[in-house]
Amino acid sequence: MSSTFEVLSGRRALAVREAPTAQQALVDYVRGLGVPDDEIVRLGPYAVAWRGAVYKAAPVSRDRLKTG
Fold first, then answer.
1. Which of 11, 28, 39, 62 is deepest in the core (most CB within 10 A)?
2. In this structure, is the dihedral angle defined by the CA atoms of residues 26, 30, 44 and 54, taken in order, positive or negative?
3. Apex CA 32: angle with CA 28 and CA 20, to 5°?
4. Domain count along the chain
5. Residue 41's beta-bridge partner residues?
6. Per the domain annotation, does 68 fall within a domain?
7. What angle do CA 58, 60, 61 make, to 5 degrees?
8. Which residues share a beta bridge with 55?
9. Residue 67 lies in a domain
10. Which residues are within 8 A (CB) of 29 and not within 5 positions of it... i.e. 6 or more apart?
11. Is residue 26 classed exposed, middle or buried when 0-12, 13-18 and 19+ CB atoms within 10 A define those classes?
12. Is position 37 within any domain?
């Protein structure tokens, strides 16, 4: 089952991704930037890093998606 996650860099929202886990949403996002898997550092279930930039995932409620 997939959940919806917001991808964040600092306080800035970058994207919304649907994935089974927060980490998968993050990895999919960073790979989409053209980053090879071996350069992605997994920091935990809700964060990854690449070249010093830290990306975090936060769950998005279905209600929030409907209201924009």
1. 28
2. negative
3. 15
4. 1
5. 49
6. no
7. 145
8. 48
9. no
10. 7, 14, 15, 17, 55
11. buried
12. yes
Does residue 33 form part of some domain?
yes
- Where in the sequence is the domain holding 17, given as residue range(s)? 3-61
47 DSSP β-pair partners:
44, 56
Q: Could you tell me how far CA 54 lies from the centroid of its own chain?
A: 10
How far apart (Å, rounded) are the C-alpha atoms in residues 25 and 40? 13
Task: Please report, in tens digits, the pLDDT of each residue of the chain (68 residues total).
Answer: 889 999 999 999 999 999 999 999 999 999 999 999 999 999 999 999 999 999 999 999 766 656 55
Tokens representing 43 are: 């920091």
Give the residue from 1, 5, 21, 2 showing the smallest Cα distance to 61: 5
Tokens representing residue 61 in the block? 């409620």
